[in-house]
Amino acid sequence: MWTKPYGNTGKDVSVVSFGGMRFDKPDDIDASAEVVLHAHRRGINYFDTAPGYFAGQSEKIMGAAFARMPRESFYCSSKCMAADGGEFRASLETSLKRMRVETIDFFHIWCIVRPEQWAERKAGGAVAAALKAKEEGLIGHVVVSAHLAGDQIAAILREGIVEGLTVGYNALNVGFRGEALDCAAELGLGVVTMNPLGGGVIPTHAERLDFLREPADRSVVEAAVRFNVSHPAITSALVGFGNAQQVDQCVEAVEGFTPHNAATVKRIADRVGQRFGAFCTLCGYCLPCPADVEIPKLMESYNYKILSAGDQAEESIQKRLGWHWGLSPDAAAACIQCGQCEDRCTQHLPIRDRLEEIAGLAE
Predict the structure, then answer these.
(1) What is the pLDDT of residue 309?
(2) Is the pTM of this model over 0.70?
């Protein structure tokens, strides 16, 4: 598998990386470790986990696999969302033990879903604890994982504290994170993209999203992975793997693949609006909102209703809001129905109606 430089760190990372939150058999450490080892044999060298994945089981799975892999042949990644420096340090030490390594190569200030949380991590001592652990050799590189808009992420990156970024990016939300990717490239930072398959939305709704494929793409999954790794600012597409077959599918998607040029990437992104007009592309033109409603996050969650059917539709909105954005349906209730967002929406979506519908889910 081909690799890309992770920013200015001197490390070359496989363009597909392994996410440890979707194991088919997380309770079977040995069987799950075999999936990790299989990915390593297929050329994947970046393995990402977190203490919250399967209540710590994912880190143990990684540790079981790492014990059988030459240390110089892979990079490992984990995370902590604590703001308190002492809690951050304790979590890091637990992760090191579970993963059976002396250094975690990329350690994340994890899950920044609101701008003020970054300030809280600094004020609480978490960022200082991470930098101290780096000085001690327990962390290779301090990085950040964020679920913010592109300009908000760029503001964090420009502080010069972190060496890389993990961020959600795929063909369905290309407009929302563009500024963050541009900033990372400008600063020489590595970028790993989580949810390159839309958190499972793309393969689950492959038939409806078939328009993402280019003529040479054998599947929608292949198309989504290729779209992601073609972006010059992206180091690696982080895919959550459950089994060896899923690993093989993604590895084969990039083997022998020549990255799309900028015109092809734009053409694929444009098809989201052209072929799926009701789908919000998260361009962000609806902002600013005079009531500070986080419209793109709410509209992105509404996309999941469009893709779902029947009784699962409303549940899919709530899950996306809570699990990915850290929001509740109440977040839509602040809408004052001024209509400015709809005036600016290039897709002419019924934003106010959708916000009202989302707010109704809280009742």
Answers:
(1) 62
(2) yes
